[in-house]
Amino acid sequence: MGGKYRMLLYGGAERSAGIDVLLSPDSRYVADGSADGWIHVTDLTTGDRRAFAGGADSTCCTTPVAWAPGGDALLVLYHADADADADGDGVHPSRLLLLDLATGAARRLGGELGNRWDLRTGSLAAFSPDGTRIAVDAGGELTMLDRSGAVAWSRELGPDARLAGVGAFTPDGSAVAVFRLDGCRSGCDADQRAARTWRTGYVDAATGRDGSGPALPPAEGQALRALGWRNGLALVALRYVREPGVTMGETDDWDDTGYRETGHVQLVSLRPDGRVQVLLDPPDGVRAMDVARHLMEAGRFGATAPDPRPFPARPLVLLPAVLVLLAVGGVAGAVLWWRRRRAVSR
Nearest-CA neighbor of 57 among 97, 8, 17? Predict the structure, then answer.
C-alpha cells in the first residue's frame, strides 16, 4: 500500500487479523468471512468491497484461511450454522474450499474436517511457494493436496505438533515446517502457558516423511504461528502472549491464538544463527497482526509511513461522520446567527 494507512470496521466483532481477516500477499486486498455474503474481499486502494456467493455452500458461515501466493485464489473454511446441528451437541461440520477470485467458483478440497470449533484456523493450511500444493492440518493429521483436491499423502503429527502456519513451506517448497510443543498442553495456568516452548521440525513435502530444513532456535510463548520467510533464511512468526486473567480448562473451547485467550502479540524472526529477534513489539492490547507476504520476503518496508488516518477504506462508513459534522455545523451556525441578531437588536 505504499505506506498508506487504511481502516476497516467490523461492528465490534472480535475478529483477529491474520486469522479471521487476511491481508493479500501484495497488501492490496483484505478478505473476511460473513454470514450474509459467504466471503468478502475489500480493495484497500479504492474501498470497493466484493461479495462472493460460494454456490451451494453459501448457506452460512465462512472464515478465510490462506491466500494463494499469486493472489488469484483463497482457501476458505466453511461450516454449517447452529440450525444444521440436528443433534444439538454443538458440532458444526466443516470443510475446506478453494475460491477462484477471477470466476467466483468454489471447489471443495478433501473430505469433512470435523467440528469447526476444534480446528485451529490460524494454522489450518498453507500454500506451497508456487501455489500448486496445499498442506492441511486437521486435528493433528497433516495432508498434502493439489488444487484439484487430489491427496498426495497423509500422516499423523501427534498431539504436540501442528502445521506451523500459512508460511509453513520452506522457500524452495521442499519441506513443510511444523511446530512441536514442549510444555503444558491442557489445563494450564497463566505461568505454564507463558513458559511453553515451540521447536521447529520439518516434513518432506514430496513424501510426507520426516524432512529437513534450516536449524532454527526454539521460541517461548503461549502460541507461535508462522507467517513466512524473511530473505529466504529466517522464519517470521507471530508470538502470542497469554492473557493473565483467562483460565484454560480441560474441556473449554480453547484457542491459543484466539482473541479472548491472547493478551499481546509480537512479530519475531527465528534466525538460523540461533537468535529469536523481535521485529515488532506493538503497544499493549494488540492481540493480533498480519503482514503481507511481499514485505516479509523483501525483509523491509520500502515506503515512508505517514501519520495514521482516522477514516476507514469503505466510503459508506464515512456517512455517519458526515452527518455528525453537518449537525455540528448547523448548531454552530444557528448559535452564531442568534448572537449576531441579538447584537444588532442591542
Answer: 97
